[in-house]
Design a protein that fits this description.
Blueprint lengths: L1 H16 L12 H7 L13 E9 L4 E8 L18 E7 L12 H14 L2 E6 L10 H13 L2 H6 L4 E11 L1 H14 L8 E7 L10 H5 L8 H11 L29 E8 L3 H13 L4 E10 L10 H16 L2
Parallel strand pairs: 3-4, 3-5, 5-6, 6-7, 7-8
Antiparallel strand pairs: 1-2, 2-4
Helix pairs in contact: 3-10, 4-6
The structure holds 2-acetamido-2-deoxy-beta-D-glucopyranose (NAG).
The site of 2-acetamido-2-deoxy-beta-D-glucopyranose (NAG) has 5 residues, from loops.
Pfam families: Abhydrolase_3
Keywords: Signal
GO molecular function, one term: hydrolase activity
């Protein structure tokens, strides 16, 4: 029960974070939002078997990444990285949630989550800071996140990343808006030659998809934890181009205006769905449509999963989600 209490308090707090900095005219009071986004600097010391450091990808746009590397041996900082040198490590490029509007990789919640993800998957996690809405609307987030894939292939990245990163095993992962981004970045990447970088899979954790239609879950969940319908609608307004609605192909990926992606090479997808998440039916629709056009998709359904449950270490099933993600990766490596 304690964890339910902790969850309710946290949920109220997150609801405040998502509400107070929003202005009526659709803009965000950034300074105020920053106050709520408790940040932490990258910890170069080994903590839970992982070291972290920040790298600027593009000074002009402000894109930067926080890199998490599983390391072994005594202490050491990132300058004397001692990664698990005997094995090559896959890379998980991670896009955080926050409705395309809030959060960044150095928010404590995401820093800790990516550290756990790196440890559990024995993977280098590259957590991306992309430009956010409403200051930067669709498709800026997609393009920024795609740019990080090109950067991963560059000599600049090679000089900074540990020698045993295996670019032939790259996964795109993200939660909520970040899950939406992972899907769209995979489509951007499909037409390009990124070799040696190869996408092996997508991990969409409670991805933020939507549409004009109202699903039963959206209508029936009167007071869902973490995200209200009003907040979700506001996020879409903030992110989608002016004069568009939630049927825009960015949000309604299998909607009336979306393009046919049956011939687009999308790697196998894992979708995490929560039974207490108002977005669950959009996610299940995504799964169904992807399967219909012949894509490989797996689902992990958590009946007690509220939106964002996997990022909240207070919730017991969050650990199971990490285990499921790790085994999805393992199964892709055979
Ligand atoms: C966190 O990220 C923001 C936005 O990029 C940056 O301005 C700030 O300096 C960072 N703070 C820490 C402690 O990493």
């Amino acid at each position: 029960m304690t964890s339910m209490w902790a969850l309710r308090i946290l949920s109220r707090f997150l609801a405040m974070v998502g509400t107070i900095p929003r202005r009526k005219d659709g803009t965000v009071h950034r300074k105020l939002a920053d106050l709520f986004e408790w940040v932490i600097s990258a910890n170069p010391q080994r903590a839970d078997g992982v070291v972290a450091f920040d790298v600027v990808v593009d000074a002009e746009t402000g894109i930067w990444v926080r890199v998490f590397v599983p390391a072994q041996g005594m202490g050491g900082d990132s300058s004397e990285l001692n990664p698990k040198a005997d094995e090559m490590m896959p890379v998980i490029v991670y896009y955080h949630g926050g409705g395309f509007v809030f959060m960044k990789p150095n928010v404590t919640l995401y820093d800790q989550f990516c550290r756990r993800l790196a440890g559990k998957c024995s993977a280098v996690v590259v957590s991306v800071h992309y430009r956010r809405a409403p200051e930067h609307k669709c498709p800026t987030a997609y393009n920024d996140c795609y740019a990080v894939l090109e950067w991963l292939n560059s000599e600049k990245a090679e000089a900074i990343l540990p020698a045993n990163v295996d670019l032939s095993r790259v996964y795109l992962a993200g939660d909520s808006a970040g899950g939406n981004i992972a899907h769209h970045v995979a489509i951007l990447a499909a037409g390009k030659d990124l070799s040696p970088l190869t996408l092996r899979g997508l991990v969409l954790i409670q991805p933020f998809f939507g549409g004009e239609e109202r699903t039963a879950a959206e209508l029936q969940m009167k007071d869902p934890l973490i995200v209200s319908l009003e907040l979700l609608d506001w996020y879409w307004k903030a992110y989608l181009p002016p004069d568009s609605n939630r049927d825009h192909p960015a949000s309604n990926v299998f909607g009336p205006y979306s393009r046919d992606i049956s011939n687009v090479a999308i790697p196998p997808v894992l979708v995490i769905v929560g039974g207490l998440d108002p977005l669950q039916e959009w996610q299940m629709k995504y799964v169904k449509e992807m399967v219909t056009i012949g894509k490989k998709v797996e689902v992990c359904f958590f009946e007690d999963g509220v939106h964002m449950f996997g990022q909240l270490k207070q919730i017991e099933i969050a650990e199971q989600m990490l285990i499921d993600i790790a085994s999805f990766l393992e199964n892709r490596e055979e």
